[in-house]
Specification:
mainly beta, six-stranded antiparallel β-sheet, 2 helices
Amino acid sequence: MRIRTVFSILMIGLACAGARAESRVLDGAEVSRNTAQKWCIAPTGPLPNWDSPADPNCEMVWRVLAEREGHVLYSARYAWPSPTHSRRPMRVLTEVLFEGAHGAPTLKRLFAVQEDEGHVVLAPLRVLSLGGMTVIESTVCMAETNECGRDLVAWDGGKVTPIKDETIVDIRRALPKDYDLRMNPSVDLAKLLGSGSAWAKRDADCCPSAAITFTLRLVDGQLRAEDLKLTPRTS
């Protein structure tokens, strides 16, 4: 059910199970607008798959995400029951992006993300304007810890291009040598700001001894962290 990661946020150490998105850039093949807009996809096979039956309990939401120079970016978000056993009902969530002109009979498939709520919670895709680029953000969060990760792509008339997230590398490089990260920091892409915690070697997992803040910059297809500030926490 889970699809291969094409690009994903760096994980914070082997001992820490961070949140990650499962996503892929699609081939841009054309599909019928009627099919894309009105039919649920099958729970198996390559995304999106209409050649096999959909789950009878599948639900679908269609929306317009963005418009640019005559191009319209559409989202189809699908949900069906998860095979994961739990105390509350879980869903498999899938979102596929299509592009086309208003009223055109066919659309291009561009991007897809899929997750099982039994693993992580997948937020609806959102579009931001950053550094003169139209950026699509896919966010997933761990239900137990609220730790989040994200995949980013840039949309530019007929295609999407992965944006490499280098923020963890940049933060680790800027931290004092006795500090490290054990959890993904929080990021506000709209404001290009981030914050989180840093752990000294002696710190227990529960109790990081410092807070960090930083700024973000999108440059050359990469998301970078800059201006890191570390503030020790008082006991």
